[in-house]
Design a protein that fits this description.
- Helix content is 16%, strand content 44%.
- The protein is α+β, with helices and mostly antiparallel strands.
- A hairpin with a 2-residue loop joins strand 1 and strand 2.
- The relative contact order is 0.15.
Amino acid sequence: MFGGPSIDQLIPVVLYTDAYVVRGEIKTRQRRVTDILNHAEDTFVVLSDATYEEYGTRAQAIRSEFAQVNLGAVLFAVADTAVDPTPELRTVKIPEQAMITIPPFKVIGRIHLLPERDLREALSELTGRFVPVTEATFWSDVVAEPRTPVAMVAVNHARAQILAPHREVDPWAGLDRSAAVGGSAARRLDADVGGSEGQPA
């Protein structure tokens, strides 16, 4: 009664799976991508007018009139626009900046947590098969996918590691890299000298 439209409509979606970017349309009564995926009655969704593009290849895309996509293989789904829930169903939440790793991808954006809790407790209460991340940017150095800003992504919770708050650190910070390199070279030299002892000139 308070949910999305009362009739089915075709909603365009982009799904990033283990190996493919899948584009198509889903017939649904839901308005938001997270609701489409979280309220799916089966472990898959069926897309119409689907296109499959494999990561890291220049091969032609595969087109299909219909495609059944396993939700377990979906890393995240992309929405061009963020759709707010209807006021009657809205739960007040607090946005928190986070990094989500979903190999081979990373996502930076805002997750939405229950208020009046510390971060540990709020994260322990973050549930749902697909978690919305707003004001998001996703990328993958492994499969050469560039940084792409989007309004929202729906992340597969079972495949994700959520880091909040997060910061990037230099693994070499505080170390004398030149000394480390020199020490390694000295050890290699000692090994070479030791290995040559006892051998005829």
